[in-house]
Design a protein that fits this description.
The structure holds two protein chains of two kinds. Chain A contains no helices and twelve strands. Chain A is mainly beta. Helices cover 0% and strands 49% of the residues of chain B. In chain B, β9 (88-95) and β10 form a beta hairpin. Chain B is globular. The N and C termini of chain B lie far apart (37 Å). Classes of the chains: A mainly beta, B mainly beta.
Chain lengths: 114, 114
């Protein structure tokens, strides 16, 4: 069965510390990978995506994620977080066998403390 | 360009009543998706329209849910009669199609059934 797992429901971290939010999925056969962010009282915003090519993808605000086919992972990292990064982060996968739907992980709440 | 618009943003109804949620996708986006997040759980796919046709409705929970997309523009999701377990946040997303997988999400409708 197709599934996406975000192992950590909450990740507390101090400002300027590095962070990694983990995402694993059930099968790496022809997948497209996404990270979305939801700030308080807002909708889902695309943070970054992997479709093909370089396995390391970056966002405009300093996040990066690496597609690891052998470990079926797409972990999100940032070397130094800011208070404004406090939000809920969702990993999502589109399998090529699906017409277009995304399968989401359970979400990880990143709490950045001063 | 205008984003994906959903309304109402919040709705509180009594068990047994009917509620209709609306989604206006980005103009020109043929693909429209509905998702739902029940409190504490992952965001789950409900259905996918391509223009006015239902491409995939495998995630619709039961026949109390009816989705329509008249003329391939906006979409409505009706819940009739609503039950307590229908409470959650309902997200709509749209995409242009092709292989860019540029899904844009709306801010969601928070439905509370009491």
């Amino acid at each position: 069965a197709q599934s996406v797992t975000q192992l950590d429901s909450q990740v507390p971290v101090f400002e300027e510390a590095p962070v990694e939010l983990r995402c694993n999925y059930s099968s790496s056969v022809s997948v497209y990978l996404f990270w979305y962010v939801q700030y308080p009282n807002q909708g889902l915003q695309l943070l970054l995506k992997y479709l093909s090519g370089s396995t390391l993808v970056e966002s405009i605000n300093g996040f990066e994620a690496e597609f690891n086919k052998s470990q079926t992972s797409f972990h999100l990292r940032k070397p130094s977080v800011h208070i404004s990064d406090t939000a809920e982060y969702f990993c999502a996968v589109k399998w090529s066998s699906n017409t277009g739907k995304l399968i989401f992980g359970q979400g990880t709440t990143l709490q950045v403390k001063p | 360009e205008a984003g994906v618009t959903q309304f109402p943003s919040h709705s509180v109804i009594e068990k047994g009543q009917t509620v209709t949620l609306r989604c206006d996708p980005i103009s020109g986006h043929d693909n429209l998706y509905w998702y739902r997040r029940v409190m504490g759980k992952e965001i789950k796919f409900l259905l996918h329209f391509v223009k006015e046709s239902k491409q995939d409705e495998s995630g619709m929970p039961n026949n109390r849910f009816l989705a329509e997309r008249t003329g391939g523009t906006y979409s409505t999701l009706k819940v009739q009669p609503a039950e307590l377990e229908d409470s959650g946040v309902y997200f709509c997303a749209s995409s242009q199609g092709g292989r860019s997988y540029g899904y844009t999400f709306g801010s969601g409708t928070r439905l509370t059934v009491v």
